[in-house]
Structures are given as C-alpha cells and as structure tokens.
Amino acid sequence: MQTREDIFNILRDALVELFELEPERVTLDANLYQDLEIDSIDAIDLIDHIKRQTGKKIAAEEFKAVRTVNDVVEAVFRLVNPAA
C-alpha cells in the first residue's frame, strides 16, 4: 500500500522530470495550471506517466476535477488503494 507521502514523492519526481520544474515549486498546494503552468497536453502526459507507474489509469473525467498537486495525490491514492 502506498501512502499519500509516497505518491507525492513519486509525483513530484515525475513533474520535475517531465516538465523540467524546480522541485521546490512542486508543493501540495501548487495549482497545476497556474503555478506549474501545465497545459492540457501536459496533463495527458502526466496521466500516461501515472498509468505506467501504477498500472492503473485515472479516468479523464476524474482528472478534470484536479486542480492542485494534492488533488492528483488524492486521485492516485484512491486508484491504488480502492478500499481506503
């Protein structure tokens, strides 16, 4: 079982690697679109990366509600821990 902290660390590393962001910019409160300047194409890349890491795909409809890094962490947490 992955904790929210584990998921955040993996997600932060992915955002840094995929989008060349400075690690200190990636906080739980950071808005993906405004603070991190991620666009819709980047979001698709991120969904694909999460799928490769977890073996599970976040539904596009669920990802539309995501605004902050913490929202992504929560969505992934629910995906990998369905009983939680």
From TrEMBL:
Coiled-coil regions listed in the entry: none
Cited Gene3D superfamilies: ACP-like
Pfam families: PP-binding (PF00550)
Sequence ranges assigned to domain Carrier in this UniProt record: 5-80
The name this protein goes by in its record: Acyl carrier protein
